[in-house]
């Protein structure tokens, strides 16, 4: 057990229980604790632990780190990046993150082994009580079906336990077992991705100051062949890179491909000096997981439970980014919970809690709907080939595309591109 994890006699009741201490859960717990709310953060694993991810953080995620009081300077050991390098259609374009009032102009890369531990620590420093080794198995409900706590199996002995709170925030990731236990299944009309990643030692690519994104993947076995999916190479600054690829369910290859072989085949086509062709440079196995996108689980509030991050299907369909959205929804859920707890149980409190899905839909609903259309379009290889061929050589257009895909605009007083993107997301239906 870590030094930042609760030990000794254990509180079994709180104002809010947060299920899962990934970025979404830790952000929610931090913002609740900052308001003086008694929060119990329950996590089934022990920190530090691995989580399958690309480890890339855009300025949107950096803003959330800053809101949690985390020093993201290079002095504090972070590797900052300046933007995105996009490779495709025979073009290699370096696009700097936009200069905006609302977001910093740099991104970061950090392994989740480190990152999630750090966020959980911040929540504890703010006053949250973290308990690891607690596997939440389902809700405790009153006679009206309202959730008043959680059932769990605790520690290596898996002893049964119950924790009580008038509100529960579920941030249990893509598996979403907690919302599932309440009957909230995944929506099939929303995009879904699958991605795999692997670490490699690479002296050449480890200290990159751009996040590298590949729109076209070539097969080493058959260089004339384009492989399905999109790839990334993110330098970690510690001699290693995080390399991976993702496929969307709008692609014909979705579910019919061996993603591990696909990764090896693509990496076989990269320059030998990068070291990514060589099994001896690999650090650990290729691991994968699903990316639940575009609000693929709703409602985001029901019966005393607020859904945060992957649990509520909040990965951005346009770029596969999920950390920023988990942290942002965690903060939004915390703010709403604080207001709700100040009201008596009943209709008044319910009214306050309904603000959470309403806010989410206002902030991301229209954008995600456009994302859904985007995913369908790029699922067609012909459209993708044309877009890459004719779009990539247009720097101004690509600047716009970067803002759109990374969801980086100023809501007020931005430039013409910001106004177009904000206008589009406002007119798109948000449900
Ligand atoms: C291969 C891959 C690459 C990706 N690359 C990126 C990227 O580069 N950048 C990016 O922003 N996003 C990326 N994503 C998406 C990102 O990983 C997720 O969107 C993000 O982790 C969501 O955070 P979360 O807090 O909602 O859930 P998670 O990070 O999944 O955290 C959930 C937590 O809940 C715990 N938990 C689960 N069930 C229980 C239970 N029953 N009881 C107690 N605890 C429980 C888990 O142990 C975990 O700690 C990638 C995803 C994949 C699969």
UniProtKB/TrEMBL annotation:
Coiled coil segments of this chain: none
Domain FAD-binding: 13-185
Residues spanning the membrane: none
InterPro entries, per the entry: FAD-bd, FAD/NAD-bd_sf, Geranylgeranyl_Rdtase_fam, Geranylgeranyl_reductase
Domain of life: Bacteria
GO molecular function, one term: oxidoreductase activity, acting on the CH-CH group of donors, NAD or NADP as acceptor
Family matches, as NCBIfam families: GG-red-SF (TIGR02032)
The protein's name: Geranylgeranyl reductase family protein
């Amino acid at each position: 057990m870590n030094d930042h994890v609760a030990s000794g006699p254990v509180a079994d009741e709180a104002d809010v229980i947060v299920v899962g201490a990934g970025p979404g859960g830790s952000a929610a717990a931090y913002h609740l604790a900052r308001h003086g709310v008694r929060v119990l953060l329950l996590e089934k694993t022990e920190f530090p632990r691995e989580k399958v991810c690309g480890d890339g953080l855009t300025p949107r995620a950096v803003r959330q780190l800053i809101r949690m009081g985390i020093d993201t300077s290079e002095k504090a050991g972070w590797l900052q990046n300046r933007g995105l390098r996009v490779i495709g259609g025979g073009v290699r374009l370096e696009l700097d993150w936009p200069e905006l009032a609302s977001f910093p102009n740099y991104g970061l890369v950090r392994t989740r082994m480190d990152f999630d531990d750090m966020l959980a620590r911040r929540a504890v420093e703010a006053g949250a009580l973290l308990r690891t080794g607690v596997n939440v198995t389902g809700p405790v409900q009153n006679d009206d079906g309202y959730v008043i706590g959680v059932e769990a199996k605790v520690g290596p002995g898996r002893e049964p336990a119950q924790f009580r709170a008038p509100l529960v925030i579920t941030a249990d990731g893509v598996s979403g077992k907690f919302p599932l236990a309440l009957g909230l299944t995944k929506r099939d009309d929303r995009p879904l991705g699958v991605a795999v990643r692997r670490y490699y030692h690479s002296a050449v690519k480890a200290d990159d100051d751009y996040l590298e994104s590949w729109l076209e993947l070539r097969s080493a076995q058959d260089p004339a062949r384009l492989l399905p999916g999109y790839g990334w190479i993110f330098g970690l600054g510690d001699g290693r890179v995080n390399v991976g690829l993702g496929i969307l369910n709008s692609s014909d290859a979705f579910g019919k491909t061996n993603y591990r072989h696909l990764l090896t085949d693509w990496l076989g086509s990269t320059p030998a000096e990068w070291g990514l062709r060589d099994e001896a440079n690999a650090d650990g196995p290729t691991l994968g997981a699903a990316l639940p996108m575009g609000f693929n689980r709703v409602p985001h509030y029901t019966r005393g439970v607020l859904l945060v991050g992957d649990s509520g299907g909040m990965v951005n369909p346009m770029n596969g980014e999920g950390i920023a959205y988990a942290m942002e929804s965690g903060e939004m859920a915390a703010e709403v919970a604080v207001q709700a707890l100040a009201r008596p149980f009943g209709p008044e409190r319910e009214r306050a809690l309904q603000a959470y899905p309403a806010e989410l839909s206002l902030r991301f609903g229209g954008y995600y709907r456009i994302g859904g259309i985007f995913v369908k379009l790029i699922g067609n290889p012909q459209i993708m080939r044309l877009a890459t061929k004719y779009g990539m050589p247009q720097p101004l257009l690509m600047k716009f595309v970067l803002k759109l895909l990374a969801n980086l605009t100023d809501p007020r007083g931005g430039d013409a591109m910001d106004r177009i993107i904000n206008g589009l997301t406002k007119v798109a239906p948000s449900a």
